[in-house]
Design brief:
With 326 residues, this protein is an alpha/beta fold. Strands 3, 4, 5, 6, 7, 14 and 15 form a seven-stranded mixed β-sheet that branches. A six-stranded parallel β-sheet has the order 10-9-8-11-12-13. The chain has a two-stranded antiparallel sheet with strand order 1-2. Strand 14, helix 10 and strand 15 form a beta-alpha-beta unit. The relative contact order is 0.16. It binds NADP nicotinamide-adenine-dinucleotide phosphate (NAP). NADP nicotinamide-adenine-dinucleotide phosphate binds next to helix 1, helix 4 and helix 5.
Length: 326
């Protein structure tokens, strides 16, 4: 089968499309013929081993995982002997953030992981970006215990995580102020934001409103800069380590000393329950994954380069199987 392979850490150019062995599903796994996948920020960080700390988990000198890709949508080709929840022919979408492997024509993935049937009416390319951004956004929202009626600011509202956060917060009944660039104001309003701040026209950290939660979904701010936006007992939540990798440390100490605290969410194991929840959110229209550009698998290096501009809107999709003739 064809897969996007890399055998060392480095820039997008370390990735090449090559022939590799087709995986066989273990007893508790499903073999998916991948139709669409994404290149996301996790793939970029793991490919380059940035931060360097990643090497402790991924292989010190060389990466143990050679095929990246966490999100996928495709058709079940075969199931392991112990699998009863899926069958050959099912159209599925899912996420495997531990083993990766979705940048390939076939992927073997646990049946009890984040795997669900694709909601009716969705194409593979629309379904593939439906998991990672929403999973991380939901982890943060749950860790901050956001409640109906709370005021929440989302900085980086156009990223995969930010755009999911705006939609999931509105679904929960929060009042959402979103921060984005001028060309994305209408898009973000369309996601449900009650108010939008253009970060090129206004410094959002000088905003007069106070918030129960500030979500930095793009990793470009800090607790220090956002503290004045928070109400007493307010929460600063980030999807990133922070400019000095300070956020995990602040998440440990701020609850002890400060009335305003940092939460650094560690996403839980994605499981069947989460898969069902995301499927329901997409089916009901509460969450619509945003798709930016699409690339064929052969052009995955270009896709990596684009994602690393930091300017993508939502997700960048990779079409693995050629589209059927219309
Ligand atoms: N915790 C985890 O496990 C995990 C996993 C994946 C990603 N992440 C982190 O989460 C962050 C978001 O990733 P993502 O894929 O959702 O989004 P992304 O692709 O990094 O976000 C792109 C959007 O961010 C906005 N942006 C770029 N630079 C900005 C700046 N200086 N100030 C304000 N906005 C800026 C741009 O929109 P506008 O032009 O509209 O501003 C752009 O469309 C990244 O920092 C990534 O490292 C964490």
């Amino acid at each position: 089968m064809k897969a996007a392979v890399r055998t060392r850490y480095g820039p997008p150019e370390v990735v090449r499309v090559a022939e590799v062995g087709k995986p066989a599903p273990a007893g508790d796994e499903v073999l998916v013929r991948v139709h669409a996948t994404t290149v996301n920020r996790t793939d970029c960080g793991v490919r380059a081993a940035k931060p360097f700390l990643y090497r402790l988990f991924l292989g010190l000198r060389r990466p143990r995982v050679t095929v990246l890709g966490t999100e996928f949508a495709g058709e079940v080709e075969a199931v392991g002997g112990g699998v009863t929840s899926f069958k050959a022919g099912d159209r599925v979408f899912g996420f495997d953030g531990t083993r990766f492997g979705a940048h390939a024509e076939y992927l073997a993935t646990p049946a009890d992981g984040l795997l669900a049937t694709i909601p009716a009416g969705l194409t593979y390319e629309q379904a593939a970006p439906g998991t990672e951004g929403a999973h991380y956004a939901l982890s943060g929202i749950r860790a901050a215990r956001v409640r109906r009626g709370q005021d929440v600011l989302v900085y980086g509202a156009t990223g995969a995580i930010g755009s999911a956060a705006v939609q999931l917060l509105k679904h929960l009944g929060a009042n959402v102020t979103a921060v984005c660039g001028p060309e994305h104001v209408e898009l973000v309003k369309g996601l449900g934001a009650d108010r939008v701040i253009d970060h090129t026209a206004e410094d959002f950290t000088r905003d007069r409103q106070r918030y129960d939660v500030v979500v930095d979904a793009v990793g470009k701010s800090s607790f220090g800069r956002c503290r004045r936006l928070l109400r007493p007992r307010g929460i600063y939540l980030s999807t990133d380590l922070g400019p000095l990798s300070q956020n995990p440390f602040l998440a440990l100490v701020t609850p002890l000393f400060r009335r305003r605290k940092v939460v650094f969410p560690i996403p839980g194991r994605p499981d069947r329950q989460l898969a069902g929840h995301l499927r329901e959110l997409i089916s009901s229209g509460a969450f619509r994954p945003l798709v930016d550009r699409r690339y064929p698998l052969d052009q995955i290096v270009e896709a990596y380069r684009y994602v690393e501009t930091g300017r993508k809107v939502g997700s960048v999709v990779i079409s693995v199987q050629p589209a059927p003739p219309s």
